[in-house]
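Posting for a labmate who doesn't have an account.
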Amino acid sequence: MDLLRKLLFPLGFVYWMVTFCRNLFYDWGWLKSHSFSLPIIAVGNLSVGGTGKTPHIEYLIRLLQDKKIATLSRGYGRKTKGFILADENENAATIGDEPFQFYSKFKNISVAVDANRSNGIEQLQNLVHPEVILLDDAFQHRKVKAGFYILLTDYNHLFTQDYILPFGNLREPSIGKKRADVIIVTKCPSDISEIAMQKIEKNLKVDVPVFFSKIVYDMYLWNSSQKVEVKEMVDSKLIVAGIANPTSFVQFLKKNTDDVLLFPDHHTFSDKDIETILATAKGRKIVTTEKDYMRLHDKVESSQLWYLPITIEIIENQNKLDKLIRNYVG
């Protein structure tokens, strides 16, 4: 893979030029962005996946729970097209795993999907009249001009240490960071030092507030009808993950006798995949991520399948971040 990326390095320059010019045309007004009157917060990254957008969207949902919230996603991996407002008839196949997760967990919000974000916002305004819209993975969607941009970057893969596709993992040149109102460095170690945070902030070279977050794993494993403390599940199990960066998830759960099966991010589990999972589990409990559970729960016996929820915690200055967001939303 590394050799292939090196061979594709010249294409990276072409991709860099295309994305740079596209952004420049939007900045100059040659390409039009659609603005809206209601508060819109866009959460995204410069790289391809794996920065923790979903738990950060959930953080915003909890922070703004006194508002009438709608989330709008593209619905990556769904088998449908166009605008869909989630209801009891939807599932991960029709709206995507992450939107279905939002819909399953937060009953007091509206969840919609549409690759055309402008149309999606207009539909939400007409149908549910939200007070604030959270755009999931929309940092590069320049056709819509959000009012507040939150840029995420992985502690272990900062955008300042990466390269443009296909040589690296950046969707656009790092100069795109200038559109951010706030930057959050995600997946930080719990014991990150003040000096390390200052060093990273200096390395990012931005004029906007920089915050740091860490993943917090739930104390319980859940399935469709019950929960059990993680420490009480001592029997050998199978760990299944289809997310961009599963390392920390696996490390948190794995014991010596556990087996692990890894799949690509947003993987659509086929009948053959399910056969492989069940054959590898050999009757043992199967533990997966919450996002993967959305795609597996109707394919595996509920008593055998469990998931581990995660949340994020802002390491320092959480009140400052919350105030910035609340002041914008008004």
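Reply:
Got it, the structure tokens are right above this. The chain has eleven helices and 17 strands.
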